[in-house]
């Protein structure tokens, strides 16, 4: 039994614990205990992984467990991790841990809320550890569907509309993914032998180019919907704005990363020729997304919408970097996923806490919060600075790597795209600083706000955990970067091998 | 005689119930409920014991491991319906008709069993008729209610029409081949124009029974007018049985013109799924809603049939099994609520979760399973159907079907939205459902949650589907 099984077992046990707990407080504490265990096992996994690598274990995938499930279709329960998935698991555990503390004030149906939240988390964990396309897809849908209930029941604003829109768009994406996966499955053994869903085995095969070109758009768009790829991002601002705090955190912090990870791990990894064939089109879309999201954020006055659009921009940058097809850029993409995941979770946590006190999210109605709630305000400034890429925080490391990697691309088209995308950093600075100025500094606009309390202990737990993540990665990024690099070898090789076949 | 075990046992309990009925005084008719359930449960269990296979009446009746499996699936479904309908049968106005309900249901089931086991078009036709006529009587259960009477009449007229069409087709088959035995007909099918015409008539007749578009028009009215438990029987058991024999005949008798019928199925599949979904979007009455959703689900089954070969047969059976559990759970909830409160509209379910959380959860699981959300059984069923069609290279068809699953997810979510998200000033008050309803729903939930994880079920169906060819 591999240590990875824990990431499925702990959530299941937690859910059972929640179902048997008697009251409100018990539900919360069971969730806290479960998700703390999850965080501890994630940290343990990181240490174990690094130790294995240091000991010289250079296997492509570590901690493998492989159980046959559907024999005739060759479906396995096959789990294992490389550097990239370890990093994603660490991110998920951290954000879920913070999310539980951020939803301490849920009063309506707490049992159902925490059950759905942890169900969602288990879907995400399962997705990151799966190496079998079937189980991967199963966990993917498992992660998406609780969102409907979470936003619909505990959300605010036009929650019914947002929940339905989000669910239908994401499930529409998953319909595309399913078609792509079936296509890969039936082309998974071009040289004979049994068909397989095994990701690693398929990556060693060479899927016929015609099939790759047909399937790639389905998979990339399917995962891209969840990765908020322009023009399929429209569910994201509405969904984030209507969702309760913890759900926004999980959603922007983790769930959207499923999209980027899927594009990287399934679409580009398994269909490298298809990726080269279609890359230009999606690169244009990603570049538009980067710029569009940044400008969208400038326009907004609602704190959640600002961060939702900023997420669109940052997530588009992930897809942008993946489509550059070189090691540095893809490394940057993974770093960006981690960095943005923690940072945006911090943003949404803070917004939720501020909203819980002021009962408004419009920046024009607030001001001078720095005097009233210094802890939250300082944390917000930290998140903002990380978001605009100040050195010392994770955002800088990620974006720097992405743009250095992208600019290595020799041809003009990619360089122009890089320059356009890089200009988004300036726009990001504008909206971040504007919010900080209006929201936190200046005069207190509403007298009622003068007596508002600062963060409580559970708020602090959540915020401190996330800030720790940002600063650790920002000040000591090398171990993370090396860990990710260790996992990138196979995909880069495949992309290089595919390039001459397509490029003139 | 052991070869006909399933049918004979069912005949036996039908006769026993008929005799007991005579000796029961009017005020004690309810006593018959428990023995009927026990007998049916017994028959279901006996059905799973290893049985003998073989042929009777010179090959008119064939029993193979596959048909035994199919009959067992139907038995389970009928048993669940029996358990679910106890609460409704106990009502005062139904008191005198309790044994009628059981006997009519059982005789339909006997008809279905003969139909599945048929090795000859004549036996097939006899079974089909026996499976249809008693159910029409059941549809007209509340004969003084206009809608129920209408349902009965509509059902009998449409089945008469479809049987006529079907028989016409069969007569053409006889005319061109000179025999009615499946094994003798199969090699003589050569795609001659008259045979194609015969196939079209046969197909149309079956399409009525499975309610495929454009032969679906009777479905919604009949489903709405009939009592809920009869509706669930019609939409689940009848449909499954018809699909089973339809698939068997397509794969064995018409195997030689597979190119032709897969083209026909291709078009009908798209029409059925799409129109069923589009109509379901507009429904307010839950019975009509489930009627149209079941039309769409039938379209998904065709996806498996089009997959041909052993895989196709397997996915069809597997999906039917999953569909039985999911749909019966949904109908079970609709039934108990209609029974206790008389409410059948989606609006009425507003805020149901706050008053009746358990029923809402069952309904949610059922609808998610019908929509194909993992890790519920419906997901596995749908996935295998899509895989079967994709295996034959029908990627466009799979894409259309996949897009349709999103449409279906939308309307299933509408019901879930009503139950969990909406608040209502006058929600359905809390009520305690009786033990039988709970047992029935529990069986369904067990099926929905567990079947997907046990790969052995799929493998077993797959192995038995070998026997077909």
Characterization of the model:
- The complex is a heterodimer of chains A (504) and B (469).
- With 504 residues, chain A is mainly alpha-helical.
- Chain A has one domain.
- Chain A has 21 helices and two strands.
- Chain A has helices at 6-20, 24-54, 83-102, 110-129, 133-144, 146-154, 159-186, 199-204, 209-226, 235-242, 245-270, 272-299, 303-322, 327-358, 369-372, 374-387, 394-407, 412-422, 424-440, 457-475, 478-502; strands at residues 62-70, 75-81.
- Chain A has a two-stranded antiparallel sheet.
- In chain A, α11 packs antiparallel against α12 and α14 (327-358) runs antiparallel to α20.
- The radius of gyration of chain A is 22 Å and the shape is globular.
- The model of chain A has no long low-confidence stretch (mean pLDDT 87).
- With 469 residues, chain B is an all-alpha fold.
- Chain B has one domain (2-468).
- Chain B has helices at 5-23, 33-48, 65-84, 86-89, 98-117, 121-139, 146-177, 182-188, 193-210, 217-225, 228-252, 258-281, 286-306, 309-341, 352-355, 357-371, 377-391, 395-421, 435-450, 455-464, and strands at 54-56, 61-63.
- The chains are: A mainly alpha (504), B mainly alpha (469).
- Chain A binds chain B through residues 69-73, 75, 134, 137-139, 141-142, 145, 148-149, 152-153, 159-160, 163-164, 167-168, 171-172, 175-176, 178-179, 182-183, 185-186, 214, and chain B through 368, 373-375, 379, 383-384, 386-387, 390-391, 395, 398-399, 402-403, 405-406, 409-410, 413, 416-417, 420-421, 455, 458-459, 462.
Supply the number of helical segments of chain A: 21
Please report the distance between the alpha carbons of the first and last residues of chain A.
48 Å
In angstroms, what separates the terminal alpha carbons of chain B? 25 Å
Number of strands of chain A: 2
Helix content of chain B: over 70%
What low-confidence regions of chain B span 5 or more consecutive residues with pLDDT below 50? none
Low-confidence stretches of chain A: none
Which shape of chain B, going by the Cα principal axes? globular
Q: Bin the helical content of chain A.
A: over 70%
Task: Tell me the count of domains of chain B.
Answer: 1
Mean pLDDT of chain A: 87
Helix and strand content put the structural class of chain B at mainly alpha
């Amino acid at each position: 039994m591999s240590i990875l099984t824990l990431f499925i077992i702990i959530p299941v046990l937690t859910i059972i614990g929640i179902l048997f707990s008697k009251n409100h407080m018990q539900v919360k504490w069971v969730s806290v205990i479960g998700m703390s265990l999850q965080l501890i096992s994630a940290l343990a996994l990181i240490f174990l992984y690094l130790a294995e690598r240091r000991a010289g274990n250079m296997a492509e995938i570590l901690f493998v467990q492989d159980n046959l499930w559907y024999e005739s279709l060759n479906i396995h329960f096959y789990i294992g991790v490389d550097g990239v998935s370890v990093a994603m698991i660490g991110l998920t555990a951290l954000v879920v841990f913070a999310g539980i503390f951020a939803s301490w004030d849920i009063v309506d149906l707490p049992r159902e809320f925490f059950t759905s939240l942890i169900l969602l988390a288990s879907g995400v964990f399962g997705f990151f550890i799966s190496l079998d396309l079937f189980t991967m897809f199963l966990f993917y849908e498992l992660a998406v569907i609780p969102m409907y209930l979470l936003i619909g029941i505990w959300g605010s604003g036009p929650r019914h509309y947002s929940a339905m829109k989000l669910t239908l768009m994401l499930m529409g994406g998953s319909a595309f993914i399913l078609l792509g996966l079936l296509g890969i499955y039936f082309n998974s053994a071009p040289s004979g032998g049994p068909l397989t869903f095994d990701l690693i085995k398929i990556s060693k095969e060479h899927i016929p180019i015609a099939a790759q070109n047909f399937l790639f758009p389905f998979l990339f768009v399917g995962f891209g919907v969840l990765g908020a790829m322009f023009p399929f991002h429209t569910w994201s601002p509405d969904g984030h704005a209507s969702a309760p705090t913890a759900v926004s955190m999980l959603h922007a912090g983790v769930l959207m990363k499923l999209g980027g990870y899927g594009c990287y791990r399934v679409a580009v990894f398994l269909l490298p020729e298809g990726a080269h064939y279609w890359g230009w089109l999606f690169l244009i879309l990603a570049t538009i997304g980067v710029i569009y999201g940044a400008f969208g954020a400038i326009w907004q006055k609602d704190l959640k919408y600002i961060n939702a659009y900023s997420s669109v921009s940052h997530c588009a940058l992930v897809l942008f970097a993946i489509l550059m097809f070189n090691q540095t850029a893809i490394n940057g993409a993974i770093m960006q996923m981690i960095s943005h995941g923690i940072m945006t979770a911090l943003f949404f946590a803070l917004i939720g806490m501020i909203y819980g006190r002021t009962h408004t999210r419009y920046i024009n109605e607030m001001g001078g919060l720095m005097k009233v709630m210094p802890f939250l305000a300082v944390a917000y400034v930290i998140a903002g600075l990380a978001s605009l890429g100040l050195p010392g925080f994770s955002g800088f490391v990620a974006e720097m790597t992405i743009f250095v990697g992208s600019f290595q691309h020799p041809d003009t088209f990619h360089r122009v795209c890089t320059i356009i995308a890089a200009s988004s950093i300036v726009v990001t600075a504008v909206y971040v600083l504007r919010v900080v100025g209006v929201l936190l500094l200046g005069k207190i606009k509403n007298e009622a706000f003068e007596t508002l309390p600062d963060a409580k202990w559970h708020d602090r737990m959540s915020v401190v955990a996330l800030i720790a993540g940002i600063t650790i990665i920002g000040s000591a990024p090398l171990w993370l970067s090396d860990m990710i690099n260790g996992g990138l070898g196979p995909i880069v090789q495949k992309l290089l091998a595919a390039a001459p076949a397509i490029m003139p | 005689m052991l070869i006909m075990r399933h049918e004979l046992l069912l005949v036996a309990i039908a006769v026993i119930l008929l005799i007991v009925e005579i000796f029961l005084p009017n005020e004690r008719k309810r006593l018959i409920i428990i023995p009927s359930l026990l007998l049916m449960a017994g028959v279901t269990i006996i059905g799973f014991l290893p049985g003998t296979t073989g042929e009777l009446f010179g090959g008119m009746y064939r029993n193979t491991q596959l048909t035994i499996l199919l009959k067992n699936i139907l038995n389970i479904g009928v048993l669940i319906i029996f358990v679910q309908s106890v609460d409704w049968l106990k009502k005062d106005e139904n008191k005198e008709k309790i044994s009628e309900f059981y006997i009519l249901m059982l005789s339909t089931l006997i008809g279905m069993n003969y139909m599945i086991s048929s090795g000859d078009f004549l036996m097939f036709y006899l079974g089909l008729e026996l499976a249809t006529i008693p159910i029409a009587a059941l549809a007209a259960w509340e004969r003084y209610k206009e809608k129920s009477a209408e349902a009965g009449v509509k059902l009998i007229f449409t089945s008469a029409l479809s049987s006529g069409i079907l028989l016409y087709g069969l007569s053409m088959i006889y005319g061109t081949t000179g025999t009615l035995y499946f094994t003798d007909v199969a090699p003589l099918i050569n795609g001659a124009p008259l045979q194609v015409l015969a196939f079209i008539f046969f197909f149309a007749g079956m399409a009525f029974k499975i309610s495929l578009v454009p032969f679906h028009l009777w479905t919604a009215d009949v489903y709405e007018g009939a009592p809920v438990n009869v509706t669930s029987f019609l939409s689940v058991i009848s449909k499954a049985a018809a699909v089973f024999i339809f698939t068997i005949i397509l794969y064995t008798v018409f195997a030689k013109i597979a190119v032709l019928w897969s083209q026909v199925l291709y078009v009908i599949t798209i029409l059925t799924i799409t129109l069923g979904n589009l109509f379901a979007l507009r429904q307010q009455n839950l019975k009509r809603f489930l009627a149209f959703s079941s039309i769409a689900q039938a379209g998904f089954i065709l996806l498996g049939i089009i997959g041909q070969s052993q895989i196709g047969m397997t996915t069809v059976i597997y999906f039917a099994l999953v569909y039985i559990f999911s749909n019966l759970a949904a109908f079970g909830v609709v039934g108990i609520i209609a029974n206790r409160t008389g409410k059948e509209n989606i609006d009425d379910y507003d805020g149901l979760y706050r008053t009746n959380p358990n029923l809402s959860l069952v309904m949610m699981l059922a609808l998610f399973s019908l929509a194909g959300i993992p890790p519920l059984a419906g997901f596995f069923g749908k996935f295998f159907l899509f895989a079967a069609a994709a295996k034959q290279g029908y990627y466009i068809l799979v894409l259309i079907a996949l897009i349709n699953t999103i449409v279906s997810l939308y309307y299933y979510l509408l019901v879930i939205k009503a139950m969990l998200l909406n608040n209502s000033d006058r929600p359905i008050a809390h009520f305690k459902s009786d033990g039988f309803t709970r047992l029935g729903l529990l069986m369904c939930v067990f099926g929905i949650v567990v079947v997907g994880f046990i790969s052995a079920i799929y493998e077993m169906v797959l192995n038995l589907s070998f026997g077909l060819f």
